[in-house]
Amino acid sequence: MKGFKEVPYSNLAHLYLVANGFYNNYEDIKKKIEETKGQISYDSPIPVAATNAFFAIELYLKLVYSLDYWEKAQACLDSPTNVTQYPNEHGLGTLFDMLDEASKCKILKLVSLNEKLTSKKFKDILDENKDGFIEWRYIFEKKDSCCVNFQSLSEVLEVLRSYCYYCMDHIYRPKAEWVENSPHTSATMEERPIATKEDLEKLLGNI
After folding, report:
1. What are the 10-residue block averages of pLDDT along the chain, 207 residues in total?
2. Contacts 24+ apart (CB under 8 A), 162-168
3. DSSP readout, 104-160?
């Protein structure tokens, strides 16, 4: 075990949105792959989609763990603090195994609603792809060909996304002052002209 990462409980709303972002990015790229199948491509979208999918699964599992931990360690206190934690771990099967039994049972109950999934298959997908995020973000280092089952990943993601949606709606309960003082993210954008083929040829020809 690699220890635990302490985070503000109020940041779990941000964690949830980030996980959704990686999930949505995976779905968008997967759709693009399907729509452009057989066409000439100037990028390699499969590793990018896989990396997004595996990281989304990891973040959803860490979100559930963080909520479970706070409920056990803080919710019972007279003056709970804005602190929770999750495992500093990438292994998907390990993260699922570390969840509270009640959360695992609820997740597997959602699994039972999916005709293409069983509890065993769900767990097997997590175990077989335990290092998916680590492997696929550096897939270009591999010497052998690799494949990924997007159908299985989508089924797992749909279960976890649904459960986390439920958790954020029914379990997550930060104090108002914690939320008011929570950090946010922003980005500075600048429109930059895209060089034409002729501009690039002139530029590179002078190097």
Report:
1. 90 97 97 89 89 97 98 94 95 96 96 93 95 86 85 96 96 92 77 77 74
2. 162/110, 163/60, 163/64, 163/103, 163/106, 163/107, 163/110, 164/16, 164/19, 164/60, 164/63, 164/64, 167/63, 167/64, 167/67, 168/12, 168/13, 168/16
3. HHHHHHHHTT-TT--HHHHHHHHHHTTTHHHHHHTGGG-SS-----HHHHHHHHHHH
